[in-house]
């Protein structure tokens, strides 16, 4: 059975709409060619149901008349596996990238080599004792020893305080173990905010799916937030579906802990940093929550992200502070032991306190009266310069080891961050080659849909002329 008189017009009309919709989608792609997180969209065009009226005298055969085309749905051109790879590479890169600035700040505290740095002050300190050995009763030489010792103590204390300040900028904890602030606390607050946004978007996406629509722009925003979340730690995402079709539901794990489940309406909005047995932890107070010990994740290859990177940087800072304090304590003990063994009535203490307590100084009595210094022991003190007092290291060698250790940590973090950034860029480029907008390709499609629209328009004109001929001109 052939189509009716108006079938040609209806078919052409549908062609106009189809190509207009396709042009609109192409325009959307071109408008968002530079939009971060935007996923290329594509009009899925299919033929509409054919025209046929089955009856006793007619049959449904392959000879049915077509009725045109329609845009079935707007598809996001997406590779979910590539998204997982990008999120993983983001976590790996962030683990090192956030350590770079911290360790470079720590490296800058030492300012070595420098003519007035701690390394030179250690040399000058023992040199002044050698001078005192040759002039044991000279008040001027004694004053020099005390002054250089005081300068050395001040420099050690200054570097220690600077390292401690950087450590607290990463994470500040009071005496009771409560977190007071720092970069890690800020990042956890940001994680909570991202999870809340993802949860809200998921609820909106589910509503769009429920009415049979495709929430492409909302999905783009959610994917961008998931990638941002992976900056702070490893993220695993499981999309929900109903009868093989997406329904917008989402399950998200962060550091292996479920933090979002749209089925259970679970969103940890009260994640907090804390201390447990001296270890940094992250968890939730809601329903007890799982406690994830970030400190134990440093050696776990499955865990990465900036939070663990900052834990590593903080532990490195604490270790360098401890080494610096060990150097000061060893210097105090060695010098004071020699002065105490002199058997004279002179002052027995040269250094007092510790860097950890913030009171490492030269004995105030010596500062007030350098003449109290026992010059008879100058020879023994000067020989400490070459004595192995910290393992197999002299004071100068041990300090050089501290400086080298900090420098190596900064250089390693910088090198690894650059390496991981290159890997992330390559993986992101591979994803964008699939999901990103190619302006040349879209311009080609634009011409294709333009000609399709023009052809459908021309079809309407031709059918109109034919109908006009039949209705208005035949028989005239």
Task: Provide a concise account of the structure shown.
It comes from Desulforamulus ruminis (strain ATCC 23193 / DSM 2154 / NCIMB 8452 / DL) (Desulfotomaculum ruminis). With 476 residues, this protein is an alpha+beta fold. It has eleven helices and 13 strands.
Can you characterise this structure?
Residues 104-339 form the Flagellar hook-associated protein FlgK helical domain. Residues 434-472 form the Flagellar basal-body/hook protein C-terminal domain. Belongs to the flagella basal body rod proteins family. The chain has 476 residues and is an alpha+beta fold. It folds into two domains: 7-77 and 436-473, no CATH class; 84-434, no CATH class. The chain is 56% helix and 13% strand. The protein has eleven helices and 13 strands. It has helices spanning 7-31, 80-110, 118-134, 139-170, 183-210, 216-229, 306-340, 364-368, 378-382, 395-435, 439-473; strands at 41-47, 69-76, 172-173, 179-181, 235-242, 245-254, 257-261, 266-267, 271-276, 279-284, 292-293, 351-352, 361-362. The protein has a four-stranded antiparallel beta sheet. A three-stranded antiparallel beta sheet has the order 9-10-11, with helices on one face. Strands 1-2 form a two-stranded antiparallel sheet. A hairpin with a 7-residue loop joins strand 10 (279-284) and strand 11. Helix 2 runs parallel beside helix 7 and helix 5 (183-210) runs antiparallel to helix 6.
């Amino acid at each position: 059975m052939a189509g009716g008189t108006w079938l040609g017009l209806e078919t052409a009309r549908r062609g106009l709409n189809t190509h207009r919709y396709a042009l609109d989608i192409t325009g959307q792609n071109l408008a968002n060619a530079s939009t971060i997180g935007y996923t290329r969209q594509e009009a899925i065009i299919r033929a509409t149901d054919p025209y046929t009226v089955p009856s006793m005298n007619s049959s449904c055969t392959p000879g049915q008349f077509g009725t045109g085309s329609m845009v079935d749905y707007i598809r996001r051109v997406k590779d979910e596996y590539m998204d997982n790879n990008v999120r993983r590479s983001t976590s790996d890169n962030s683990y090192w990238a956030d350590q770079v600035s911290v360790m470079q700040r720590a490296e800058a505290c030492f300012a070595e080599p420098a003519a007035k740095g701690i390394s030179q002050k250690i040399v000058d300190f023992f040199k002044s004792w050698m001078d005192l050995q040759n002039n044991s009763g000279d008040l001027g030489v004694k004053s020099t020893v005390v002054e250089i010792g005081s300068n050395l103590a001040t420099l050690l204390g200054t570097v220690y305080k600077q390292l401690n300040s950087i450590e607290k900028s990463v994470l500040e904890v009071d005496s009771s173990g409560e977190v007071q602030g720092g970069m890690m606390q800020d990042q956890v607050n940001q994680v909570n905010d991202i999870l809340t946004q993802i949860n809200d978007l998921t609820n909106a996406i589910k509503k769009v799916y429920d009415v049979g629509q495709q929430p492409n722009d909302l999905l783009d925003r959610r994917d961008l937030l998931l990638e941002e979340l992976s900056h702070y730690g490893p993220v695993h995402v499981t999309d929900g579906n109903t009868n093989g079709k997406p329904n917008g539901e989402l399950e998200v794990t962060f550091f292996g802990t479920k933090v979002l489940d749209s089925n259970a309406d679970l969103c940890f909005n009260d994640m907090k940093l804390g201390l447990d047995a001296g270890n940094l932890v992250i968890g939730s107070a809601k329903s007890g929550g799982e406690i994830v010990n970030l400190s134990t994740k440093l050696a776990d290859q499955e865990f990465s992200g900036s939070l663990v990177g900052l834990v590593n940087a903080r532990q490195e800072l604490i270790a360098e502070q401890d080494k610096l304090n060990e150097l000061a304590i060893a210097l105090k003990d060695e010098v004071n032991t020699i002065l105490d063994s002199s058997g004279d009535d002179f002052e027995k203490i040269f250094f007092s306190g510790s860097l950890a307590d913030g009171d490492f100084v030269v004995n105030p009595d010596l500062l007030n009266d350098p003449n109290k210094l026992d010059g008879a022991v100058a020879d023994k003190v000067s020989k400490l310069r070459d004595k192995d007092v910290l393992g197999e290291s002299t004071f100068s060698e041990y300090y050089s080891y501290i400086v080298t250790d900090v420098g190596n940590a900064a250089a390693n973090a910088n090198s690894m961050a650059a390496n991981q950034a290159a890997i992330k860029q390559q993986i992101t480029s591979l994803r964008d080659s699939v999901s990103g907008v190619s302006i040349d390709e879209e311009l080609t499609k634009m011409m294709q849909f333009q000609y399709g629209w023009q052809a459908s328009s021309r079809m309407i004109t031709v059918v109109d002329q034919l109908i006009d001929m039949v209705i208005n001109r035949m028989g005239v």
